[in-house]
Amino acid sequence: MMAAIASDGAPHLALIHYAADLWRVLNLLLIPSFAIPESAIEKRKPLSTSARRAGWVGCNIVLTNIPDIARVPIIVNCVPQAPPDVRRRFRHVRPLADLSVKERGWTLDVLTAVRALGRKEFNLDDAYAKERELARLHTDNRHVRDKIRQQLQVLRDKGLLEFLGSGSYRLLGK
Hints:
alpha+beta; Arc Repressor Mutant, subunit A; four-stranded antiparallel beta sheet; three-stranded antiparallel beta sheet; 9 strands
């Protein structure tokens, strides 16, 4: 999966929550391939030497490391969402696909971090409060604050947040 993300070849994910006894889809969620950062991939232990596929290494996908705005609901509580709404939500995050894979990871991680603040408006100090968390995800970067500022500008340019002036920002979209 890491190789697929690095080569921009990861698949879109469709997550289905269903009631098997009723043969009913309860929720269906689309996660576009370009919205899956490397930080969302958690390596599992290799299969044991006695396993048929000994040594194979799988992964878990950590959904909390995928920005909620990039999770496009198609069916919610058994109710299909209006196609124009689904397309609008997808188009809102689609500009992320234009970023290079390396930059996209940082951008998605900063977006996840600022959305985790739990409010629409935030300031640069709030974003800097996530510095340690982002440094842990990107150990090769020694200028995390600079990168946070840069990625906030990228998110602004991609229409995912609005710069309000004086170091203040507003998240756009759901």
